[in-house]
Amino acid sequence: MSINSWSGMSECFSRKLRHVKIHYFEEIRSSVLELFKERIPLSSRTRVREKIYREIYTRKIDRSYDKLISMIRECASLPLSHELHMFYKELLRLYSLEDVYNEMILRCRNIISITRDIRDKYKSLIKNSSNKEEMKRYVREFIGRILSVAKRKLRDKDVDIFKKIIRELSSMPCFEEDVMKIVLTGMPQVGKSTFISKISNAQPEISVYPFTTKKIIAGHFIDEKKGIRIMLLDTPGLLDRSVEEMNEIELKAVAALKHMADVAIFLIDPRREFYYTIDQQLKVLDTVKNLLGEKKFFIAINKIDISSEEEIAEAEKKIIDLGYSKEMIYKISAAKNIGLTELIYNIYDIFLKTKT
Prior knowledge:
Elements: H1 13-17, H2 25-37, H3 49-76, H4 86-94, H5 98-127, H6 132-153, H7 156-170, E1 180-185, H8 192-199, E2 217-223, E3 228-234, H9 248-259, E4 263-268, H10 278-292, E5 296-301, H11 309-321, E6 329-331, H12 340-355
Parallel strand pairs: 1-3, 1-4, 4-5, 5-6
Antiparallel strand pairs: 2-3
Helix pairs in contact: 2-3, 2-6, 3-5, 3-6, 4-9, 5-6
């Protein structure tokens, strides 16, 4: 995979990452030494001993170098953070891992550059030598030097961190440039996972405990007759606190809101016995509004099937009292699939109108 193979494909970055193999130094060392010990089949029929030795040791250098590079190339070919979509870059920045990510990629590229020069030097030395023992010494020096370079650049603790970064980024949904994206947000346990499981092809884990969703889960709402394809994203729940105080789970939701959402739906649980009060939920709504800026968002009072009319009316009044229009508020039940399709179609129509 060449470096250029990633260009222009940020929408599939996370999916492509799932196939990237990052190697520890010991894996590289074992593979290179194992190949180095193998016999070299001769391609020429010459009986001139110097030419035979020269061919053997030159090919040992080429094969060892190619093996090392093949195990480094996937790391070296990854795009640097400034080449990524802002969603992935924001995740790296929020976790303070942007420098670590870039540093490992640059190290892998540096290994390729340095070992290429070493290879060229020792091939030249062997080419100008007619002494078998000298050629043997050169090729052993070559192996030692390229492995030394790799060992310095690929410390286990750094590779461990880098592999975790790749694993985290690969678990994120692909960013689809030409598809409308609706991000579901709100406090924990307001019904985001149930919503997305009912309206899309996603199958999130659903539980009665808060913080079930630790990752961003993507699903699609598709109406082939109308030519509609919408990407829905179930994000981790947000608590009533500043972005600076949020944990890693919440920061994923923040990144999705800022860089993936075309539109957001803020879900509210109006029940008085719910984990969080209406006032707490509305404080989080204010945080979401600030994160979205000029982007459209809607408010869905969820769980109307198990809430009293009084609870629903109280929640609606408090939302309107904060300055939100009644047209922004929808009443739904994700569990019973009440009002979900209508909400999605309405949002889609409003979004299209703002685009024209």
